Amino acid sequence: AQSVTQLGSHVSVSEGALVLLRCNYSSSVPPYLFWYVQYPNQGLQLLLKYTSAATLVKGINGFEAEFKKSETSFHLTKPSAHMSDAAEYFCAVGERGSTLGRLYFGRGTQLTVWP
Amino acid sequence: NAGVTQTPKFQVLKTGQSMTLQCAQDMNHNSMYWYRQDPGMGLRLIYYSASEGTTDKGEVPNGYNVSRLNKREFSLRLESAAPSQTSVYFCASSDPGTSYGYTFGSGTRLTVV
After folding, report:
1. Which H helix or E strand runs over A35?
2. Burial label, B95 (beta-carbon count in 10 A; 0-12, 13-18, 19+)
3. B105 shares contact with chain A (CB less than 8 Å)
4. Cα–Cα dist A74/A62, whole Å
5. Hey, are the CB atoms on B42 and A108 less than 8 Å from each other?
6. DSSP-assigned letters across all residues of A36-93
7. Within 10 A of A30 (CB to CB), how many other CB atoms are there?
8. CA torsion sign, B16 to B32 to A1 to A43?
């Protein structure tokens, strides 16, 4: 089974500061990779996904993530945090070639943005 | 709008009561899932269904049953609710043949007292 580790269950940044949320995966074959965001009292929505050769993926709301095979990482970044970015973020992986399409999730990182 | 619809959004049960959480998707997806979300535990898979008529256990199936009624609907049943089942439940669907990744419902917040 796939394994996902999100380093840091809580991250706090000031408004305007760089956001960096870390995600590492365990897989012998480069998987599909995802970041989902969950705003308070809402469901999860897709932020971005890596499924092809382009290793730098741009998502919604100014977020981007870079797939680094050598580091088995898929860290999420945003150059300048906004108060509206406060949410929980989940990294997920899926197996290439799977007919089910199941995703394996990290435990989540709660992002707090201070004014 | 196309998506995944869950009902109800909120529910309070007494210990020992039963209930069914409903989930329906209108994206013609083959795969459907039920997760529970607890603080600090992330998302844990309860049951999943790869296609109409098939279901399989996930990581935490005890105390739950599911039915894949047709391609659209996937229900989760608690036969005898326990306080440990207090959680937020999410249904999701996917179809890796067309677009990899999940579409989630908005969740059901369940409290068992």
Report:
1. strand A32-38
2. middle
3. yes
4. 16
5. yes
6. EEE-TTS-EEEEEEE-SS-SEEE-GGG-EEEEEGGGTEEEEEESS--GGG-EEEEEEE
7. 14
8. negative
Which residue is closest to A100 within chain B, CA to CA?
Answer: B50
* Residue A78 one-letter amino acid: K
Give all strands (DSSP E) within B26-86, no chain letters: 31-38, 42-49, 56-57, 64-68, 74-78
Amino acid occupying residue B51: S
Per-residue CA distances from A39 to A43, B37, B65 (Å): 7, 14, 29
Q: Which residues of B touch A90 (CB under 8 A)?
A: 42-43
Record the tokens describing residue A69, joined without a space: 């095979």
A105–B107 C-beta distance less than 8 A: no
In single-letter form, the type of residue at position B85 comes to: Q
Closest alpha carbon to A3 in A28, A35, A21: A28
* C-alpha distance from residue A54 to each of A3, A51, A98 (Å): 22, 8, 21
Q: If we measure between CA atoms, which residue out of B15, B1, B7 comes closest to residue B73? A: B7
Is B45 in Cβ contact with A101 (below 8 Å)? no
Q: Is B5 on the interface with A (CB under 8 A)?
A: no
Q: Give the span between the Cα atoms of B71 and B75, in whole angstroms.
A: 12
Q: Which two tokens stand for residue B59?
A: 């990581």
Each residue's pLDDT tens digit, A47-97: 999 987 788 999 999 999 999 989 999 999 999 999 999 999 999 999 888
Mean pLDDT by groups of 10 residues along chain B of 113 residues: 90 97 95 94 94 94 96 97 97 85 94 97
